[in-house]
Amino acid sequence: KATRTPLMAGNWKMNLNHQEAVVLVQKLAWTLSDKRHDYGKVEVVVVPPFTDLRSVQTLVDGDRLSVKYGAQDVSTQDSGAFTGEISAGMLAKLGCSYVVVGHSERRELHAETDEVVNAKAHKAHAADMVPIVCVGEGLSVRQAGEHVAHTLAQLDGSLAGFTAEQVVGLVVAYEPVWAIGTGEVATPEDAQEVCAAIRARVREVHGDAAADGLRILYGGSVKANNVAGIMAKDDVDGALVGGASLQVAEFGGVCRFY
Length: 258
Ligand code: PEP
Prior knowledge:
One of its GO terms (cellular component) is cytosol. It catalyses: D-glyceraldehyde 3-phosphate = dihydroxyacetone phosphate. Substrate binds at residues 11-13, 181, 221, 242-243. There is one protein chain. It contains twelve helices and eight strands. By secondary structure, it is an alpha/beta fold. An eight-stranded parallel beta barrel has the order 1-2-3-4-5-6-7-8, surrounded by five helices. Strand 7, helix 11 (227-231) and strand 8 form a beta-alpha-beta unit. It starts with 6 loop residues before the first strand and ends with a helix. Bound molecules: phosphoenolpyruvate.
């Protein structure tokens, strides 16, 4: 765990226009520049709506901010007659370092299958961005005790076709759907159970280097006051943060988990 840089990614979802985005990123950069804290050891990423990315790029480049940014989704296609879609090439050109793929809201509301998520992950990777591949079970699956099997099946499908050398640089986010936006946080033990199972599966399929390098995030109602216990777990390398990432003080607190 010590060799993996902690990653805190703020998924803004469909919130903040480009002007509001600039204000939030400026405030965040100000918070992260506070020398009383060792923010330098954490990788901090914001994931705004597509329409904000150009403004965020201009701000980050112009002021040489340490914040990185990514997109919430990407097309499975490179270009052409796909109205409303955004390609990996377009996102890479805007300086995105990361792309969230397979968020539960995409899987549920837009019927994205593991095959679609896998295709998106490959497009992001081929364009030199890191896919943050989201997996996780809903409430009924958890209640049936099938959460590990369900999540590993999603993992296998979503990571199909990646080599061990590629997997080492990927990010997987375990997000139990019942804990997203509900205020219901999985316990650190719940998070560790599934994150450990994910790493074990990667070790089985791709070997030690991939398993030891892969970063696994937990997501689901993470806030400044519950992040430390989750981050203390061996197989949790960071957090994918929704609601709390819209408040700078709260997200700053998450980035200061240690
Ligand atoms: C998310 O959308 O990825 C998420 C974890 O949301 P929240 O933190 O609001 O539960």
